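Hi team,

Filling in the usual template for the complex we talked about on Friday. All components are listed, including any nucleic acid strands or ligand strings, so the model treats them as one assembly.

SUBMITTER: L.P.
PURPOSE: interface mapping
COMPONENTS: two
RESIDUES: 286
SEQUENCES:
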Amino acid sequence: MDRSDNELVASVKSGNTSCYEELVVRYQPRVFGLVRRHAKLDSEVADIVQEIFIKAYTKLASFRGDAPFEHWLMKLATRTCYDFLRKHQRSRERPLADVTEDEQRWLETIDSGQKDDSNAAAASQLVNKLLDQLSAEDQLVIRLLDLEGNTVREIFQITGWSVSLVKVRAFRARGRMRKLLEQLETEKYL
Amino acid sequence: MLRLAALEPANEQVPYAFEKGIMAQIRGLRIEDPLSEWASAFWKACIPCVGLAAVTFVLVLSSSPEVPNAGHEQVQAPLVLEDLILAALYDEGGPL
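RESULT (copied from the run log):
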């Protein structure tokens, strides 16, 4: 019978380190999924996930069990990704990468006013290219709010940013993305 | 565009035996921690002790009125130090 998260955590806290492996196995797919939304290179993804699980182990004493272990772990994972983004923020002077054919086709269907819900992959790639041009804070708010579907309240709990700050950041980030998209579409015709 | 991008499922693939690497790192952490904690505590205790000793020395120096044998030019430093420290006790009518 599978032990619950709280039982495993209690076991690790009382000195049985091997129980932590079961927690890692249980949550590593979700953590990998979350980290891959924030970091692109595979080598970076593995390093960040490793850092998250080691941080979680060293901070396990601070987990009181008020909320599910999964929420606590995902919060810690998001904060670690944000710290990574800030440390490795690429220069915004770098020009936007060329669009691929799929992205091009998807942009054209949008331009013509049609709705194309079949090509989520192309939209996702395009969104990631645009997000790469934004600051770490803007990237985080768009990923948490629009891509992962968190509420503003949840974002406040994860980041500590006030509700109004989250809303203002999201509004400005979307505006910047719109401008970058217009720039892409203009360059297409040059 | 964002709504559509959100539909794209996250890639949750995990490298083979990834958890083994994590556990190896954690076990390495566990062994190192007690030593580094002890060393850190030792240095934290050492610095205030040295500081306290220095302050005490300065206070005794400044409070003692006359130091026996201080006029002799060839007085050895350890004897002068001893006299300095004991001078306060001589004056206060202590055990000596």
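MY TAKE: Residues 41 and 82 of chain B are 32 Å apart (CA to CA). Residues 18-63 of chain B form the longest helix (46 residues).

Thanks, L.
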